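ugh ok fine here u go
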Amino acid sequence: MQNACPHRVECGFYARFGHRKSRVWKNLVQVYCYGKMMPVCRRKSVCGEDGMVPDADIMPNGERVPEPFHLLP
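structure:
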């Protein structure tokens, strides 16, 4: 069974984009929330450092979700 990010329950990014159908979103969530990129997730490190929860539109790489991505299912 895969490991999952311990912060995904309260993660606004996961709540907003984690269940989208687009391959882009599925791949992004898979590698950051369940996969090999989890240790470098900027959202996870911010939650761990000071308990602050980043805005939901901040991607795991620390950048804001590009506007065209919002149109993906």
